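Team,

Forwarding the record for the chain on the shared tracking sheet. I've put the sequence and predicted structure together so nobody has to dig through attachments.
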Amino acid sequence: MSEKHDVSGVPTTGHVWDGDLADFTNQPPKWWMLGLAASAVWVVVYWLYYPSIPVSTMGEHFKGFGGWTAIKEMEADKGAVDAVRGKFEAKLKDMTPAAILADSELTEYVKRSGKVLFGDNCAACHGQNGVGVHDKDGLFAPILNDDDWLYGGKIDNIHESIAGGRQSMMPAQKDLLSAAEIDTLANAVAKGQPLSTPLFAGKGCIACHGEDGKGMEAVGSANLTDKVWRFDSSVEGIKRTITYGVNSGDPMGRVAVMPSFKEAGKLSDAEIKKLAVYVYKFGGGKADAPAASVEAPGNKSGK
């Protein structure tokens, strides 16, 4: 039953609280009602323009009078992006990685576009931004943003590592060295002093790790004097590496394999070059002389 407010005389619903608060029956402002009506019209237009009904009597969904689809919108956006990227992609296609580095505009483009490539193909092992991924045995994959490189840190070295992959081998020493000799050698290596024991030269370690123990890029052998570790750096961890080797085929041996992204067909030549430049620009790449502006025949030597 409608009543009137004692003071204002405006009709109310009859509900009053605390003697003063009442529900008036005033109509909303016209602008509000017009907005409500416009919203209702907009809902109908939107509903008819876009796909809105999941099924129909004809056996397929209602596609809307506007013909819009998410795939069409994605392709249009991709086309706009490709139009911007096109001039850069066409330019770097026939350039060497070193030549790309020498072009500041192209380098900046690769630093931006290479992030997705790295995230899709490399980050699972090497971590975002090349920080490395650790497991219980040490680094699952090497750090890419420092200046310690097994196969060389020049741009051509990095390019070859990505294109051709890496799989060096350290033979197991369990049948060549006694337990006491392995213990002595492991303790010396842990201190960064492998040359302090005659075992290093006498048992042929210098053949791969060099006379100074600093490793050889040609075979991807580790520097044993810088205390940068690919695997467990404890004495027991080093003993395991010496005893069972790396990629030696022994079940207890370390496994360290970088797959070839070119032979596997995972990446195009242009994508491999972009990744090489992207990794180099993490900050750990080593300087090299500028290269020619065309693609050099073949690859050269990465982490």
